[in-house]
Structure formats: C-alpha cells, structure tokens
C-alpha cells in the first residue's frame, strides 16, 4: 500500500498564509467588482522588462477578478531616446517638453506606435484581452494649447496642451466587449483642426477616470508615495484628505506636483479614491487594490471625523 507523506508544518503554515491573503482581498473584490479602475503606467516600470511583465499580470488579474481596468500611459524617457537618435533637439521649460511639429511626429510614433503596442503585447500573452487606443481615436481627448509662466513671463511650449474634454464612448465600447483599453496621451487640438497636442499622461488619466465614473485612479511612479517631511523616509503619508493635499501642493517637489494634482482632479471630479504607488515594486497594483493597508499614498475626499 503506497505511503503518502503528510505536509510538513512549514508547508501547512504557508498554505494558511496564502489563504489569509486571499481572504483579505474579499472586501475589495466585493467593492470593486464590475467597477472601472484607471491605471496610469509610468516611471521605471515602463522600461524594466521584469516590471513590464508583472504589470501586465496585475492588469490581467484585475480583469479576471471582475474589475474593468483601463491603462493610460505617457513615455517621456522613450520619447527623449528617440529624439536623440533622430538628432531632433528637445528642451524642457518649466518642467514641460517644448514640442515642435517635428518632435510631435516622434511623440505620436513612440506613444501610439511603440509603447501602446508593447503594453498590449504583454497583456495579450495571457489571452486576447487588450486593445490600443490613442487620445485621437474617436476624439477621445480634446486638447487645448498651453504656455507656462517662468519668472513672470508666459513661454510658448509649442504643441503642448491640456485635456479640456473627454469623449469616453470608444473606451466604454472596449470595456463592454470585455477588453482592456490601453490609451496613449495625445489629444487633438480643439482650436486647430488636424493638429495634435502632447498632453500630460497623469492629467489625462485623471480626466478619463472622471469621465468614466471610475471607482479608483492609480498612478505608478518611481517613489513610494507622498512624504510629509522629505527626505525623512519615515514620513510616508498613507492617506491624505483632498483639502490637506490642496494646501500642500505648492510646497511639493516639482516632479510630484502633476501626479498629486491629477489625484486631486480625480477626487474633485467624483472618483472615490486616487493613489500614487511605487511602480518599482513588483505587483504593487495588486497590493494597492486588494490589501487593507495598500501601498503608497491614497487621496480621499474629506473623511468623517
């Protein structure tokens, strides 16, 4: 008669830990089932092959858990690399890339032709799930040119703009078909038909989250979250109310301002929660969505005191 080895104590304990982890996710599975979560993909996760893979796994997991993920992306490092390769000069003024028509051609090529396709390809390794959309498709985003004020003077940034309108029907159609939309952050110029603008991907993700009535916005970046006393690593803020963040915004490090402003825009527009998380951590999206503590910094409307 064959002998069957009973699982050792360590193995049994590990199994219980796994079960506890799954059960911890239950309230969040119930909360977000059938809801839209917009994820802004950026930072190191966009250029690290291992993080690209784990990001795709997280997005597919959300989809099969009954959530409707929507991915929005930019691509600053890849755009800079391609401009350098083509010998096209690119400068930054006030934190924004000055975008000439020649540079805009490269922006469109890299965002819609390279990065979107790469993300779709990684997701579709798990099945025919993802579809690429540009902010130009069916007029998804409406853009308007913007300048930036430097030392009291407004500087022309070329083909750089803000998202001033969203027509989400194309994204909704993909979601209704069971697909994962992957959206690149360019927008037709409402003042100049035929012209396309380079828009901030954080702001585009926030505007889309509001237009879709998303339950949550998640922004991946290269820091653990918002610090109340940077560089003190112990000062990481887990949850912050919108009004407190609004008062802090002008004093933040310049790279964090557009990300936290996007979180504010989302919450102000009716999205219940917006979070900044560290995209350098594998599976950070699953940790943020499905665990009690989450990771990073979550922005919420005023809490009941």
Automatic annotation (TrEMBL):
Catalytic activity field: N-acetyl-L-glutamate + ATP = N-acetyl-L-glutamyl 5-phosphate + ADP
Binding locations of substrate: 75-76, 97, 198
Keywords: Amino-acid biosynthesis, Arginine biosynthesis, ATP-binding, Cytoplasm, Kinase, Nucleotide-binding, Transferase
Aspartate/glutamate/uridylate kinase domain ranges (all copies): 36-278
Enzyme Commission no: 2.7.2.8
Presence of the UniProt keyword Acyltransferase in the record: no
Pathway info: Amino-acid biosynthesis; L-arginine biosynthesis; N(2)-acetyl-L-ornithine from L-glutamate: step 2/4
InterPro entries (alphabetical): AceGlu_kinase-like_sf, AcgluKinase_fam, ArgB, Asp/Glu/Uridylate_kinase, Glu/AcGlu_kinase, NAGK-C
Entry annotated with the keyword Plastid: no
GO molecular function, one term: acetylglutamate kinase activity
Site (Transition state stabilizer): 40, 259
Main location: cytoplasm
Cited Pfam families: AA_kinase
Origin superkingdom: Bacteria
Enzyme class: transferase
Subcellular location, record wording: Cytoplasm
Function: Catalyzes the ATP-dependent phosphorylation of N-acetyl-L-glutamate.
Family of this protein: Belongs to the acetylglutamate kinase family. ArgB subfamily.
Record-given protein name: Acetylglutamate kinase
Native source organism of the sequence: Herbiconiux daphne
């Amino acid at each position: 008669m064959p002998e069957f080895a009973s699982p050792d104590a360590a193995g049994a304990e590990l199994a219980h830990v796994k079960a506890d982890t799954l059960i911890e996710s239950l309230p969040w599975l119930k909360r977000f089932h059938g809801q839209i979560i917009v994820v802004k993909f950026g930072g190191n996760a966009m250029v690290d092959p291992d993080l690209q893979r784990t990001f795709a796994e997280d997005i597919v997991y959300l989809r099969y858990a009954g959530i409707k993920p929507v991915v929005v992306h930019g691509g600053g490092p890849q755009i800079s690399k391609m401009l350098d390769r083509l010998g096209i000069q690119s400068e930054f003024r006030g934190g924004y890339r000055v975008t000439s028509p020649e540079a805009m051609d490269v922006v469109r090529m890299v965002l819609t032709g390279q990065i979107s396709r790469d993300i779709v390809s990684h997701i579709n390794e798990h099945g025919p799930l993802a579809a690429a959309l540009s902010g130009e498709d069916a007029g998804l985003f409406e853009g308007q040119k913007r300048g930036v004020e430097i030392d009291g003077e407004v500087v022309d940034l070329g083909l750089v703009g803000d998202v001033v309108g969203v027509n989400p029907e194309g994204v909704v159609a993909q979601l209704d078909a069971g697909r994962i939309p992957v959206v690149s952050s360019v927008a037709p110029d409402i003042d100049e038909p035929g012209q396309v603008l380079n828009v901030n991907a954080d702001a585009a993700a926030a505007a889309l989250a509001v237009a879709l009535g998303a339950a949550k916005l998640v922004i991946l970046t290269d820091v653990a979250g918002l610090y109340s006393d940077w560089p003190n690593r112990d000062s990481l803020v887990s949850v912050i109310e919108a009004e407190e963040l609004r008062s802090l915004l002008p004093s933040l490090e310049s790279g964090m301002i557009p990300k936290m402003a996007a979180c504010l825009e989302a919450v102000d527009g009716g999205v219940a929660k917006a979070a900044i998380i560290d995209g350098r951590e594998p599976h950070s999206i699953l940790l943020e969505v499905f665990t009690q503590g989450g990771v990073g910094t979550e922005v919420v409307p005023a809490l009941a005191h």
